[in-house]
Design a protein that fits this description.
The structure is a single chain. By secondary structure, the chain is an all-alpha fold. It has one domain: Up-down Bundle (Ferritin). Helix content is 77%, strand content 0%. The N terminus is likely disordered.
Length: 201
Amino acid sequence: MNKQTFFSSALALGAMLALAGCAGEPSSTPAPSASASESHSGHSMEQSPSANDADMAFASGMKMHHEQAIDMSDILLGKSEVPAEVVALAERIKAAQGPEIERMDRWLSEWNMPEGMDHGGMDHGDGMVPEDEIKALEDATGSEAARLFLEQMIMHHEGAVVMSETEINEGSYPAAIDLSKQIVDSQTEEINEMKQLLETL
């Protein structure tokens, strides 16, 4: 009786070991779960999204827009007897928009966009300052130069806000949309600041 019990126990133990071995084989090379695969796929798309026409128009147009703002700031900074607050504003505009131009240049290069592409009608409510008004700024001095700079830059910033809102609504490139939101916030704040400065001149 004892031998039979021992024999039965040995058979049961052998069967258990065999089952454990079979169960362990597939676990050594687990297949990725659906949620992990989806997460990885989503991450990849986030890292390398595609740009649409709105993104391209925004980056190309805003780059040129920023370049004029820096030119206007340089004109003002080259003058004497300009109120210190206006000088400080021009310096901040240069410091903020220079790096943004570099970012948009990189995007245009990544998107294989030529630098001389059409800017999507930069003369329609975009805030670009006409050449004759730029000439007036160049010729002005002191407080008059400060007044012209502020008036022109308010219009310039208002155009940038409109361009950015278009990108927010129509763009697909996350980094460009994020930049647009930053421009809306920062330049709206500067518009209010410039209006206050005008009242002091």
